[in-house]
Design goal:
Length: about 950
């Protein structure tokens, strides 16, 4: 072991140097391009329009919920099995696998929340060219063309989506390597036997060859010998790393065409605009979870997580493609309007060009099967419901996780934690969580504490608990290989480490030095990991300790592309099959551990860096190791908007930038932006100067204090948004087009966003900015500046002067937002405080909103222990009505005031409470901004009441 450590030390030193040196950026040569990825290069070389696949219609079988038929590759005679399902909720599922593979191919488990419910399909027509099936929704149908194979999904005369219309379906079948002795013998014997059979059967039956085509033998025997092995099919080298590829080439590919579509989004994680760009003149977008610190901006390079969902939108419909595959995946995007200038498009219009816009999306994965879900919308809301029915909704977090988080790599010791905690009180800045990075552990042994620096963790935690605050500790999914380390010994004794290709435990290099990687794909390992969070096993932990999973891509400092070698083994599967699932499973096991330690009572908070589709069910995600630069602040918005579109609503970025030191202006602007993102955490590298909010001068301390305190006033609104997202699958941080789907001006906007449907935020992301131009959507809408209460019409670009203390935020006319204005040291301290309702009147002098209240941290809401009320204003009457008659919960909170924006002055305001008694209320009216403030209605927030303006 000492020899291994000695050999690895230079690698560790180099890696740390890269991390710690402020002037270095990402080393792109550490990561593959498509040309360096053999399967991507091979598949991308295929020529469109030359598909070798045709459908064997005589093999078709149709039940009321499932169609199956065989596809044959006319070049090599290998057959595939196509399965087509109509799913409940206006979705279609297409699966393609080998008909008779040499061994099973990997199909992604655990991501779908359940097996999707199927609905009946019916055959409308059939001839020698294809079949037409009804999808049962209005005039929706599927046309399956036989030669070449192609699927078109139509509604009336409109093609919604086509599969293999460009002929780029590819499916590399499992095979025996040609240069092995066993293959040659098998192939020779099979060839002789086939000839014998053909001679005798053809004498008796001239249709023998047709019958043979309909009843294939083993794929490896029937594959034609003219298939040529190309470089990288059976072994691939990148730098000094050799991938052995024992199963040979296994790549799959399929193209989708989207007529009428110019805007597509999704497939995070990339540091790029929310609207995806065409990739014809560069690399495809890559989905391959990796540790990419100081990542490059506006690039298709892969980052920490992958969600293989593309969302397409035009003025008529929103659709999606969910590609359920966990292997390395590249996504090519092309468009027939790409490169056209606005003038060119106008010229087409004037000249009467009838070319319909179209975007083509091609998925290329290294292994597995084709399992594609086609989400047909038609509205954005429908699409989110469809995707949520497959992968689940955002977990409902405890309310205190929506407050402010203070983090650093690393707070030095318990005294440092206590001093920082006291600093927040001294400067009257609220916060809920302080975080500890890897240095708090005993020699990078997770689930432990440094015996010198953190000798009394329970005392530290209790001190925070007394102030109703929490702590987050990092627990990474790599385990120090040391015989005296209990976790390592148990994993090793139960044989639960990832294996190398030869069957031994896979060892890599990470923070502890020589490291083992638990096989989280194995349910037994996940169960063991979850048990580690029990209070009697994680010594020193308490119920106010929550968890951070970093490095869960997995990060392997001495691995190819700083991750795990692909021919490592997870039971019967190679790592190449499951790579993008690893971080998903880590967060799953951690969340389950926190739930188990509470006896199933408390909702967990778990932050993870790596993720996959469905990760939203287990906690929060952040955008990784960013840099204290203006462009990184700017890119954090589209990065989180992309995550939000693909189900992961609980997203944020490191406020201030992880690497380097932000100037005070950048830091303040980042606090402003971060305070309006779902996850709000400041974080910094150990090599940067300290940056607690009070260390940048009195003026900046005051600015940051105001920003953080404003976040806390909005906590009731944030909590309500998370409840709604948990129930419906709709995002919290939203692109404007989600609510204005026919307003083309919104389609590419990603420097501003909506929170829910009622708040519009335009962060200031330019250094030295004295103004911004924000687009206010909705020509029939009005928007109110939340600071000045000034009214603006929608459907316009609005010039807005800004100072260092201002961030443009607008409340939609017609909405009601609940807030709590008595800001205390933490969210829990505000639990019983009263509400202020901000009523922003629309053009019809009406408005509506909601209040949601529960205990804030348990699963009791699932037992109907909550309050959910609709607040509305119409005809000068404001009322509170119960939306959940079967729910029960009591609250001490009451309505302290009602602020009506865009009001006229009444002569009298009266309250009618639940008991029927009527009373007169005091009010103030500011005619300069049409602001009416009604004071102290005093009614319980969970009861019926009405306020009448006369």
């Amino acid at each position: 072991m000492a020899a291994v450590a000695e050999r690895m030390a230079p690698i560790m030193v180099l890696w740390l140097a890269l991390c710690l040196t402020g002037t270095w950026a990402v080393e792109k040569s550490n990561f593959k391009t498509c040309d360096q990825s053999a399967f991507c290069k091979r598949q991308r070389a295929l020529i469109p329009g030359e598909s070798p696949y045709r459908a064997l219609l005589e093999t078709m079988e149709l039940t009321n919920t499932r169609l199956t038929l065989q596809l044959i590759n006319d070049k090599n005679k290998v057959r595939l099995l196509l399965e087509l399902y109509r799913l409940q909720g206006n979705m279609t599922r297409v699966k393609i696998n080998e008909l008779k593979p040499l061994k099973p191919r990997f199909e992604v488990p655990d991501v779908l929340v359940k097996e999707p419910t199927t609905e009946p399909m019916s055959l409308l027509s059939q001839d020698e060219n294809g079949v037409v099936l009804s999808l049962g929704v209005e005039s929706q149908r599927v046309i399956l063309s036989a030669r070449p194979f192609r699927l078109d999904i139509m509604e009336g005369r409109e093609v919604l989506m086509s599969l293999n219309s460009r002929g780029l379906l590819a499916f590399e079948h499992l095979r025996i390597r040609k240069d092995t002795f066993s293959y040659k013998v098998t192939s020779t014997v099979a060839s002789v036997w086939d000839n014998v059979k053909r001679v005798f059967s053809s004498q008796a039956d001239p249709e023998a060859e047709k019958k043979d085509e309909a009843e294939p033998a083993d794929q490896a025997e029937t594959a034609k010998e003219d298939e040529k092995d190309e470089e990288g099919m059976w072994e691939e080298t990148f730098k000094t790393f050799v991938d052995s590829k024992p199963n040979g080439p296994t790549a799959i590919s399929l193209d989708f065409s989207l007529p009428g579509v110019e805007h597509v989004y999704g497939i995070p994680e990339h540091a790029d605009t929310a609207r995806l760009k065409t990739t014809e003149n560069g690399d495809p977008y890559r989905l391959h979870n990796m540790d990419v610190y100081k990542y490059e901006l506006y690039s298709p390079m892969a980052l920490y997580g992958s969600v293989p969902l593309i969302v397409a939108h035009n003025t008529e419909r929103t659709t999606g493609i969910f590609w359920l595959n966990a292997a390395e995946t590249w996504v090519d995007i092309s468009s027939n309007t790409a490169g056209k200038t606005v003038f060119g498009k106008m010229l087409d219009y004037v000249q009467g060009s009838n070319e319909k816009p179209q975007t083509d999306v091609r998925w290329i994965s290294e292994s597995g099967i084709i399992d594609a879900f086609i989400l047909l919308g038609p509205t954005p809301k429908d699409l989110f419901a469809q995707y949520a029915s497959l992968t689940g909704t955002q977990s409902f977090p405890p309310i205190f996780s929506l407050g402010y988080h203070q983090c650093r790599w690393n707070y030095n010791d318990q005294e440092d934690v206590q001093a920082v905690d006291a600093g927040f009180d001294q400067h009257d800045i609220p916060y809920d969580y302080i975080w500890l990075d890897i240095e708090h552990t005993d020699g990078k042994r997770y689930f432990s504490w440094d015996p010198h620096k953190f000798s009394s963790p329970k005392e530290m935690l209790q001190g925070l608990k007394d102030k109703k605050r929490k702590l987050v500790a990092i627990v990474d999914p790599h385990v120090k290989i040391e015989s005296s380390f209990k976790l390592h010994d148990e994993i090793q004794s139960r044989d639960l480490y990832v294996k190398n290709k030869d069957g031994g435990n896979y060892e890599g290099w990470c923070w502890p030095g020589s490291t083992g990687y638990p096989d989280f794909v194995n349910p037994e390992m996940r169960e063991l990991w979850a048990q580690m969070f029990a209070y009697d096993k994680y010594e020193g932990s308490m119920d106010n300790l929550h968890i951070w999973n970093d490095m869960n891509e997995p990060s392997v400092f001495n691995g190819p592309e700083i991750t795990m070698i692909k021919d490592a083994k997870h039971g019967e599967w190679e790592h190449r099959d499951v790579h993008n699932l690893y971080g998903f499973y880590v967060q799953m096991a951690t969340a389950e551990g926190l739930i188990q330690r509470s006896g199933g009572v408390e909702r967990p908070f778990v932050l993870a860096r790596s993720f996959f589709a469905g990760s939203q069910r287990y906690g929060a995600i952040w955008t990784g190791d960013n840099i204290a630069e203006w462009e990184h602040l700017k890119i954090s918005l589209p990065m989180c908007l992309s995550l939000s579109l693909t189900g992961i609503a609980f997203c944020g970025s490191d406020v201030g930038g992880f690497f380097n030191a932000p100037g005070t202006e950048l830091l303040v602007r980042w606090y402003q932006a971060g305070s309006f993102m779902p996850f709000f955490r400041s974080h910094a590298h150990m090599d940067t100067p300290r940056r607690e909010p009070w260390l940048h001068g009195l003026d900046n301390t005051n600015l940051i204090r105001d920003i953080v305190r404003q976040r806390y006033t909005f906590l009731p609104f944030w909590y309500q948004q998370f409840y709604h997202s948990h129930k419906t699958g709709e995002p919290i941080m939203r692109m404007l087009w989600l609510h204005y789907p026919k307003e083309t001006a919104t389609f590419a906007i990603d420097d501003e966003f909506l929170i829910g449907k009622d708040l519009l935020v335009h962060p200031v992301t330019e250094e030295g900015a004295t103004s911004v131009t924000a687009y206010l959507p909705g020509k029939d809408e009005v928007w109110y500046d939340i600071h000045t209460f000034k009214k603006h019409n929608g459907g316009q670009n609005l010039y807005i002067p800004v100072t260092i203390s201002s961030i443009p935020v607008f409340q939609r006319g017609g909405s009601i937002i609940p807030k709590k204005l008595r800001v205390r040291r933490s969210s829990t301290c505000m639990e019983h405080d009263p509400y202020t309702l901000y009523v922003a009147l629309g053009n019809q002098n009406t408005a509506e909103g909601e209040i949601y209240i529960d205990d804030g941290y348990t699963f009791n809401y699932e037992k109907k222990e909550f309050i959910h009320r609709k607040i509305s204003m119409a005809n000068n009457i404001i009322s509170s009505i119960n939306l959940a008659h079967d729910a029960h919960f009591t609250t001490q909170s009451w309505i302290e005031r009602v602020v009506i924006i865009g009001a006229t002055k009444p002569s009298k305001v009266t309250l009618k409470a639940a008991g029927g008694q009527e009373s007169k209320l005091d009010f103030e009216f500011d005619a300069s901004v049409s602001l009416l403030t009604i004071r102290k209605p005093g009614v319980n927030a969970g009861e019926d009441w009405t306020i009448t303006l006369k």
